[in-house]
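haha ok so turns out i had the wrong file open the whole time. this is the CORRECT one, sorry everyone. sequence first:
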Amino acid sequence: MQVLVNKSTASASEIVATALHDNCRAVLVGDKTYGKGLIQSVFELPDGSGVVVTIGKYVTPNHMDINGNGVEPDFRNFPAWNEVNNHLSKCHKQQDG
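then structure:
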């Protein structure tokens, strides 16, 4: 599978893309992702103002912190299928080794 990513790929879409990638199910194609890795909530205060609090953080299945960093794709342009197969084969070997 080839997953297209770019600077607009953020938050949950980055996690889905990297989950497929880290589990050797897909290669990432395109541009570096946005790097939105924080989960935030807004709490209203008694005076009507609010405060934003970070309550969680997204990390990839391989425990990479994407916040502020984004994710670099494997390929800038769509690769040939044999390149995808070679890349995923190497990924499987690294996981098995």
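Strands lie at 2-5, 27-30, 38-44, 50-57.
again sry for the mixup
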